[in-house]
Amino acid sequence: MTITGEFIAFMGLALVAIIGGVLLLNLTKVVHMVVALIFTFVSIAGIYVLLSAEFVAAVQILIYSGAITIIMLFGIMLTKHDDEGETTTGKGRKVLLFLGILGFAAAVYIGIYDFNVVQVPTDLHVDNTMKIGEALYSKWVIPFELTSVLLLVALVGAIVLAKKEEKEGDKE
Question: Considering only CA atoms, which of 40, 33, 32, 52 is closest in space to residue 132?
Fold first, then answer.
């Protein structure tokens, strides 16, 4: 097996994604968790770029790293929550977590050690964004527009529910 730049980039991005996920589970401050989540999302987008899926990588960064993460952060910060029930993790839990991570890494390594990959055509990445756009706005235009309307209705419903809760809070 020859070590190429693509292999090194993949291993680095995969390592950042795994570290971000582990940090997300172990950190206690919400803002720190969100930063770890962003690291994970951006590294996954980098893996998509290595797979010649530039459109999916751009969507990953725009939607997940940007919008979803900000919405999660605002949702957590705007809700009332008590931090009194928070407990610190013991050394036993950290050791079990580390052993679980090692076991998962060993299972993945064993699973892909002698995995034979069938060579696919190398021109899959040519004009993939244009092909997605053509399919989305020709064959799948009705489901795309229905999804847009559904998301708009959900947004309006969330605003109406938030206004009702605000009025109920004012009466108390």
Answer: 52
In this structure, is the dihedral angle defined by the CA atoms of residues 151, 132, 71 and 15, taken in order, positive or negative? positive
Torsion angle in degrees (nearest 10) through CA of 94, 97, 101, 102: 70
The total of structural domains in the chain comes to 1
Tell me whether residue 35 is in a domain.
Answer: yes
Say which residue, 135 or 81, is predicted with more confidence: 135
Tell me whether residue 99 is in a domain: yes
Instruction: Report the pLDDT value the prediction gives residue 81, as an integer from 0 to 100.
Output: 58
Question: Which residues are CB-contacts of 129 (< 8 A; sequence separation ≥ 6)?
Answer: 54, 55
Output the pLDDT for position 86: 54
**Residue 139 within a domain:** no
**pLDDT tens column, 54-65:** 888 988 998 888
Answering whether pTM is above 0.85, one says no
CB 144 within 8 A of CB 137: yes
The CATH code of the domain that includes 73 is 1.20.120.1200
Q: How far apart are CA 10 and CA 3, in angstroms?
A: 11
